[in-house]
Design brief:
It contains 5 helices and 8 strands; from the N terminus they run E-E-H-E-H-E-E-E-H-E-H-E-H. The protein is of the alpha/beta class. It has one domain: Response regulator (Rossmann fold), CATH 3.40.50.2300.
Length: 127
C-alpha cells in the first residue's frame, strides 16, 4: 500500500474545489494523493493503487458514497474510509458509521477539520 515511502490517499468527489482542497492539505503532510470523480473511477483506482485512506463524498454522479462503503470494506478491509458530505445530520453520520466508515466530515470543510480527522485516524506518512 505504500510507494516510495508515501501513504496513498484517494479523494472521491465530483467537485474540483473539494479535490483541490484535500490535495493541498494532504501534500503538505507528505501524503500521496489520487482522485476519482465518481464510484466507477474510484473502483478502478482501488484495484490499481489500494490506498490506505479514502475521503468519500456521499453525493456522487453515479450513486451514493454510503452505498459504496460495504464494497470497499469487503474488498479492501484495511483501507480507512472518511465519509464527506454536506448532509451531515446525526442520521447521516450514524448510517455512514454503521456501513463501516471510520470517520465522518461535514461540509463546509476546513483545514482544521481535515487535519483533526487525519490525526484521529492516525494517517501519516511512513518515513
Amino acid at each position: 500500500m505504500r510507494e516510495q515511502g508515501q501513504t496513498k490517499v484517494l479523494i472521491v468527489d465530483d467537485e474540483p474545489d473539494i479535490r483541490f482542497l484535500f490535495t493541498r492539505i494532504l501534500l503538505k503532510r507528505n501524503l500521496k494523493t489520487g482522485y476519482a470523480r465518481n464510484i466507477a473511477e474510484a473502483t478502478v483506482f482501488m484495484r490499481e493503487e489500494q490506498p490506505s485512506l479514502i475521503f468519500l463524498d456521499n453525493s456522487l454522479p453515479d450513486g451514493q458514497g454510503v452505498d459504496f462503503i460495504p464494497f470497499l470494506k469487503e474488498n479492501y478491509p484495511s483501507t480507512r474510509i472518511v465519509m464527506v458530505t454536506a448532509n451531515d445530520s446525526a442520521v447521516d453520520k450514524r448510517n455512514a458509521l454503521l456501513q463501516g466508515a471510520d470517520d465522518f466530515l461535514g461540509k463546509p470543510l476546513s483545514l482544521e477539520s481535515i487535519n483533526r480527522t487525519l490525526d484521529k485516524i492516525e494517517i501519516r506518512n511512513a518515513v
